[in-house]
Amino acid sequence: MTAAQAATLRWTDWQIDPLIVVGLLGGSVAWRWITLRFAARPRQALLGWSALVILALSLLSPLERGAGHSFTLHMAQHVILMMIVAPLLALGTPPAFLGWLRRRPVAGWIIKAIWAPAPAFVLYHAALFLWHVPSLSTPPCAARASIWCSTLPSSAPPWRSGGSWWRQSRASSARRWDTAC
Questions:
Q1: Nearest CA to 9 among 54, 81, 52, 72?
Q2: What is the pTM of this model?
Q3: What is the dihedral of CA 160, 166, 167, 170, to 10 degrees?
Q4: Which of 83, 126, 159, 160 is the least buried, fewest Cβ under 10 Å from its Cβ?
């Protein structure tokens, strides 16, 4: 097989990582619970399910395999996760769920502390910067032999940027969190 043939991605090159599948199933169960428990509108439920499907396609499709070989595909995966999946999750999240989270003892003070625009901005960009510092991410993952090294980098961006997107999309509804339940 030539190098050009080895670098070709095919639709049959799906990479089914058990840890990613378990994470996607857990996310699906959690999303189902959220949509049922907090009476999400049909549009919100559809946005959340769409985000999970796109997330699954991004992490299991040939794009994931190609992202390990091509910086362009790796960055395309970042764009999909941060600019498509995160906003869909943010737009699909029922305000009542966030109100419920804010009233929880531990989650409440964390959300109140980081949900303001300035802390969200600083934390988002610090996480983005630190994730790409070679000395912090490269040595343990140099050969991508560890399942954690291949899963965590791909799964972090939507959750890391989701709060920022939710805050931007719901600026006017932020005052209604506590009254939405």
A1: 72
A2: 0.66
A3: 180
A4: 126
Neighbours of 108 (CB within 10 A): 14
Cβ atoms 65, 150 nearer than 8 A: no
Of 131, 119, 127, whose CA–CA distance to 167 is shortest?
119
User: To 10 degrees, the CA torsion angle through 141, 143, 145, 147?
Assistant: 40
Domain boundaries defined on the chain: 15-176
**Helices 117-131 and 147-169 meet at what angle, rounded to 10?**
160
Pull the structure tokens for residue 48. 């959340």
Alpha carbon distance 52, 24 (integer Å): 7
Please, which pLDDT band fits residue 147 given cuts at 50, 70 and 90?
very low
Place of tokens 């991508």: 144
